[in-house]
Amino acid sequence: MILLGIMKIRILTKKDCQDIVWPNTESAKLARDWIVPLMDNTSSYISNIEVELYLLKINDLFLPVSKSDTSQIEQSYVVSPRSMLLYAREELERHSPPFVGYPLRPFFFCLDYLFQKAQMDKVVMINNWLLSTNLYPKLSLEETREIHQKIRSYFPQYAIMWRTLSSTFQKDIMGSLEECGYHGFVNRQFYFYEQSSSVLSKKRGKKSLQRDRNLKEKSSYEVFWDDGSKSFDYKELCCLYKKLYIEKYSSFNPQFTEKIIELWHRTRTMSFLYIEKDNVIYGIAGYWHLNKMMTVPLFGYETKLAKNPFYRLLTLALTDHFFPQNFPQKSIEHYNLSSGVGQFKRHRGAMVDIEYSFVYFKKMSLLNRLCWKILIFIANCIVKPIMVWFKL
Known about the structure:
The longest helix has 24 residues, at about 365-390. This protein has a 12-stranded mixed sheet with strand order 1-2-3-4-5-12-6-11-10-9-8-7, with helices on both faces. The chain is built from 13 helices and 12 strands. The chain folds into 2 domains: about 5-190 and about 355-390, no CATH class; about 190-350, Gcn5-related N-acetyltransferase (GNAT) (Aminopeptidase). Residues about 1-5 have low confidence and may be disordered. By secondary structure, the protein is α+β, with helices and mostly antiparallel strands. Helix 3 runs antiparallel to helix 5 and helix 6 crosses helix 7.
């Protein structure tokens, strides 16, 4: 445990990053190779994200920090509380019966107007990797409290937010944030695997995975893991991602450009696998890991082919890659499957938990504080029951 007297916390700009000596730590490599390049212009890497980026340095640990204001573009929900509201409306309309989702449209329209007046997007997000699922390094209670104090003093006019926290993996952080005056609210349900409670021991999971393997054996499509030598057409990979996550699901998802996919591939901050047939790529997935957990933010495939096997082939390859025979050194112990396609994941033995965000808005305007309380009420008292009831 780090003593408070010797804890060194700094907030780094792009210029500061040019002068530091990078330690040989997991978070330092990710920050140097991934976050620092984005500091110049985030929207050239993710077209619907326009924020200022900083790095929070705690001894040899690095966390990305995003600062957003009212933007000229429609921001992704990963940086914008206003877009979180609009994304929640989309999800309700998509997954719940019409008598639940559509009557709420006027209510959400009025709230959106109110959120804009309250400058809800005036927020600083800690450990924000600009993805739907943020992975967390190991943080002590003292570090969490000191981070809060540092950010609060550095950005006194902004709300402070931590996204994608869960009681399974960040219970201590959540408790520490509550002590600091943060308010928690539900984001979504997410699914995960742990090597300590293998899906391979669950009868239903074994049967579903075996069906996927049978499909793979009969399929004319092949799945390959890239060792870094593959020459990709990054624009093609970007199109496959957008066909699934932007065109099929929501424009509020991060809209990756070929520039960030090239960066991830070149720096090896993500590991890539792809589906190919006759030298044509039909599917792509990229995962990254931190603190013994992996997740897959880059995922896409050709959606216009009827009854295609691409989702099942990609998820099977990732699942087989995760379990112990492929990680004998226990370098990765947890696999965050994110949200969505809940029935599919449950049938393959995935466990489920609730993901939360925590926000501190004590110093904000009266209207801003009121809007945060409304958002928290909607998330915890309306969205959560619907989400749990319909297993979204």
